């Protein structure tokens, strides 16, 4: 088996109708471009998402399927996929199909032209296809986060990202950490870049979040991340 250079990690929970079209788009975007694998992490779905994934494995040799025994949330699912991944670089996508896999080559091209200390390329949804209330909530959340963390990132909630696997696994882990990756990467001494990407309407299924829950959890997490940044300590090292 060829060692993949890129692992595409997709966390899913109750997304049975979005699995097949999204996997088809991933393979269409990446076959012939880069050695890759697709790592789906099923977060204990209650529908037949897992059955759909199992059937697809016969036709998609790049596909690997991991299942959480108990529901653990998106951040844990992403970390599970990254830990299992064999690629040195990770691309993440939301399982609802709103991220466009055709943007992954764009992120790879941006990486290839960037300095070696840029370890995260974050998608930036410049034309979001969500409801008005969701866009409004995200606008204020991004403004508050940016003011508190000074991460110079216009959109941390976008699911499509490209990052160095080792750099990610060196970050402090906590629930909902996937929303703060730019700030956490910068805290670790790495640079991050935001890249405009496509965004699409959800074709089927329902969102797993609501604005109130996201806001309440976000305020608590912001305080925690701000504390981590203040308490961080980095130093250059040399071997003699």
UniProtKB/TrEMBL annotation:
One protein family per Pfam: Glycos_transf_2
UniProt keyword terms in alphabetical order: Cell membrane, Glycosyltransferase, Lipopolysaccharide biosynthesis, Membrane, Transferase, Transmembrane, Transmembrane helix
SUPFAM superfamilies tied to this protein: Nucleotide-diphospho-sugar transferases
InterPro entries assigned to the protein according to its UniProt record, in alphabetical order: Glyco_trans_2-like (IPR001173), Glycosyltransferase_2 (IPR050256), Nucleotide-diphossugar_trans (IPR029044)
Xref: CDD domains: DPM1_like_bac
Signal peptide annotation: none
Limits of the Glycosyltransferase 2-like domain: 7-168
Top-level lineage group: Bacteria
Protein known as: Glycosyltransferase family 2 protein
């Amino acid at each position: 088996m060829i060692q993949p250079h890129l692992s595409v990690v997709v966390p899913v929970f109750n997304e049975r109708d979005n699995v097949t079209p999204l996997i088809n788009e991933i393979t269409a975007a990446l076959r012939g471009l880069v050695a890759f694998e697709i790592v789906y992490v099923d977060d204990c779905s209650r529908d037949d998402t897992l059955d759909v994934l199992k059937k697809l494995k016969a036709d998609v040799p790049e596909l690997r399927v991991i299942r959480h025994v108990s529901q653990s949330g998106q951040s844990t699912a992403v970390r599970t996929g990254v830990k299992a991944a064999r690629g040195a670089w990770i691309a993440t996508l939301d399982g609802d199909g709103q991220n466009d896999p055709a943007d992954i080559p764009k992120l790879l091209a941006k990486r290839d032209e960037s300095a070696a200390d840029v370890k995260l390329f974050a998608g930036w949804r410049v034309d979001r296809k969500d409801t008005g209330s969701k866009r409004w909530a995200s606008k204020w959340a991004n403004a508050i986060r940016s003011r508190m963390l000074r991460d110079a990132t216009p959109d941390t909630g976008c699911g499509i990202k490209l990052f160095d696997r080792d750099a990610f696994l060196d970050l402090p882990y906590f629930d909902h950490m996937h929303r703060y990756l730019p700030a956490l990467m910068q805290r670790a001494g790495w640079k991050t870049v935001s890249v405009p990407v496509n965004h699409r309407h959800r074709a089927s299924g329902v969102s797993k979040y609501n604005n109130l829950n996201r806001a309440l959890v976000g305020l608590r997490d912001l305080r925690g991340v701000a504390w981590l940044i203040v308490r961080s300590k980095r130093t250059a090292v040399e071997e003699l």
